[in-house]
Specification:
Jelly Rolls, five-stranded antiparallel sheet, four-stranded antiparallel sheet
C-alpha cells in the first residue's frame, strides 16, 4: 500500500507525471517550482500546492527543496476518515492551486515532518488532522501566461545546429524548466523537446526547398550529425529530403 505521508527531497531534475490520486505538497525548506495543468507557482515554507487526481504536473528545484507530501489514498478513504469534513476536503482536493498555511497549520506540518511518518498510525492520523485543518482554505489560482513563442522560435532558429535542452528555452522564457514543460504540454500538446525537433525539421525543409546546400550540410545546420540521422525528416513529412527537394524543383 502506498504511504500516506512521506518526506521528499527535490532537485533540479525535472519530474513530469500524473497519478490517479490527489496529492498535497507542503514546503519545508528551499523553493520548489511547481506546475499543475500548465499553471504554476513556487512551494516554499508555510505554503502548499494541491494536485487533483489525474492532473498532469511538473516540478523541479534549482537549488534543492524538502517537502512533506500527502498522497490521498482514495475518495473512499476521505469519506471514511474525514466524516463531516469529507465534502469540504473533496472541494479542496479537486481544485489545483497554491495556498498559504497559518501559524497553527505550519506547526502541524513541522511536527509531522519531524515525526516517524513511516508509522501507519501517525501517517493516518496526521493526514486526517492536516486535511481537517485546511477545510476553510481556498486555493488561489495558479499563475499562467502564454509562452513567448517569437523569442523561443528565434532562439531555436539561431542555435538549431547546437544541442538544445528544456533549460535553454526556460532561460529565454524566464521560467523554470518545470513551468516551461507544463506550458508546452498545455498550450501546444507536445513537450518542449518535441517542439524543438519539429521546429528544426521545418527549418530543414525550408533550406532544402530554398537553397542548393548538400543534404548533409542541411542536416548539420539543424543539429543532425549525419545524413542518415536526418531520416527524421521522412518520418515528419512522409518524404525523404531528396524527394522534398525534387518536388520543389519540379514545380
Amino acid at each position: 500500500m502506498r504511504p500516506i505521508l512521506t518526506l521528499r527531497h527535490y532537485s533540479h531534475d525535472l519530474i513530469v507525471h500524473s497519478h490517479d490520486h490527489a496529492q498535497l505538497v507542503f514546503g519545508l525548506s528551499g523553493a520548489l517550482d511547481f506546475e499543475v495543468g500548465g499553471r504554476g507557482s513556487q512551494v516554499v515554507q508555510q505554503s502548499f500546492v494541491v494536485v487533483p487526481s489525474g492532473a498532469h504536473h511538473a516540478c523541479g528545484s534549482a537549488n534543492g527543496s524538502r517537502c512533506l507530501v500527502l498522497d490521498v489514498p482514495s475518495d473512499q478513504w476521505v469519506s471514511q476518515s474525514l466524516g463531516e469534513h469529507a465534502d469540504a476536503s473533496r472541494r479542496l482536493l479537486d481544485t489545483p492551486g497554491r495556498l498559504p498555511l497559518d501559524a497553527g497549520q505550519s506547526q502541524l506540518v513541522s511536527w509531522l515532518a519531524s515525526s516517524p511518518v513511516g508509522d501507519p498510525l501517525i501517517a493516518q492520523q496526521g493526514a486526517v488532522l492536516l486535511l481537517a485543518s485546511l477545510n476553510n482554505a481556498a486555493p488561489s489560482p495558479m499563475a499562467g501566461r502564454r509562452l513567448p513563442y517569437a523569442a523561443l522560435n528565434a532562439h531555436i532558429d539561431q542555435y538549431a545546429a547546437y544541442p538544445l535542452q528544456v533549460a535553454d528555452l526556460a532561460r529565454v522564457a524566464g521560467l523554470s524548466s518545470a513551468r516551461v514543460h507544463a506550458r508546452f504540454v498545455t498550450e501546444c500538446g507536445q513537450t518542449p523537446m518535441d517542439y524543438i525537433r519539429s521546429r528544426r525539421l521545418h527549418i530543414a525543409v525550408k533550406l532544402l526547398r530554398e537553397t542548393a546546400l548538400p543534404i548533409g550540410e542541411v542536416a548539420l545546420r539543424v543539429g543532425y550529425s549525419s545524413q542518415s540521422a536526418f531520416a527524421a525528416v521522412t518520418r515528419e513529412f512522409g518524404a525523404s529530403p531528396g524527394k522534398l527537394r525534387r518536388a520543389e524543383t519540379e514545380r
